[in-house]
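Board notes, transcribed. Complex of a protein with glyoxylic acid.
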Amino acid sequence: MKVNGKRVVSRLEEIYQCGRKEDGTFTRMAFSAEDVKGRKLFASWAEALGMTCRVDEAGNLIARMKGQDEKLPAILMGSHLDTVPDGGKYDGVLGCVGGLEICETFKEEGYIPRHPIEVIVFTDEEGFRFGKGLTGSSAICGHDPGVSDAEADIYGEERGKVMESYGITSADMLKAAKDPSSVHCFIELHVEQGARLYKTDTSVGVVSSIAGVNRYDVMVTGEANHAGSTAMADRRDALVAAAGFINKIPEITAEYGNEFTVATVGTIKVTPHSVNVIPGTCTFSLEIRDQDEKIMSLIEEKLRGLLEEICKKYGVTHTFVPTSFHEPAPMSEWVKENVEKAVKELGIDYCTIPSGAFHDSLIMTSVFPTGMIFVPSEKGISHSRYEYTKDEDIENGCNVLLQTVLNVDR
Ligand code: GLV
Ligand code: MN
Ligand code: MN
């Protein structure tokens, strides 16, 4: 039994087109009209297969195919359809479209799995809109996604209002929690988003674990003053201090981290934000990721110390507030073994690799037996319009997913 690779590739393109914006970018921000359009298209494909579709209290779109024994726990597949701004064609979408392709292949082959199958399109995985992702997967796992209808997104829109497009409210989200005994396992197919497979010319990655992610909001406070009449020696420039700190982050990760340690400042804002005023405050996000929780703590400690020192030097003050914490997440040994068995059965070259990006699997693994399959990202590029994965790699990845489902179904 093999998947139809061409169908998968053409569906990736169709979902991509749902994100077309007037400014020429392709973006399916969670809860947006483009995202809703993509989900509707996805549901139409699932329904055409005779699958039942429902949207749970957290907005997760769940397409279900009956198994021979409906009392058996379900095999879950899936990922997300929401993207980052001007994102690519594959991130998340491959796991959803790939999961559906397994169901379509079963239907065409007249194969009825023993276990029921569910393909899940998770709600707001990327999280750039409200600054926190993994919303739908958290709720399914029974973890509080930490959202409220009153909170505003980066454009100032209220969550309660924007979530009307899904017909959900924050207060009900935890009702989406799945009983662990109703789930056999969760398998997520995804593009690597890094360059390990690409650089080693390897077709498939069997994921060992997902890096932990700690996030912080940092605010440096100096003094807003006239940019023309304030001598350099008299300034307390919040941005100059922040820049001094940000510039040293690579040195800290190199000295105290390992090959997987990364730290990033991804957003920055100054006030009053005027060409002729010295920045009085500089607020920025900071993120630390690693496969080892102890290293993450060490990097945090060193960065806090560095910020303290730099702020003292420039005569400014600061706050350093943790906003979210996810510890590194190893994948289930049992699912991993089944993925590995599948790749070997198919005779596809593979390696075992950790994930630097996070995925819904990061959360799912805390409650359900979870595994991930990676396919190469050309040149390691992702979260970009230049994200690209070769058709043959997509087909290979889907066939590994298919074979893994067959293995765990037996
Ligand atoms: C999600 O893709 C992330 O790793 O930030
Ligand atoms: Mn993703
Ligand atoms: Mn992503």
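The pocket of glyoxylic acid (ligand 1) is lined by residues 126, 357-358 (CB under 6 Å). The mean pLDDT is 97.
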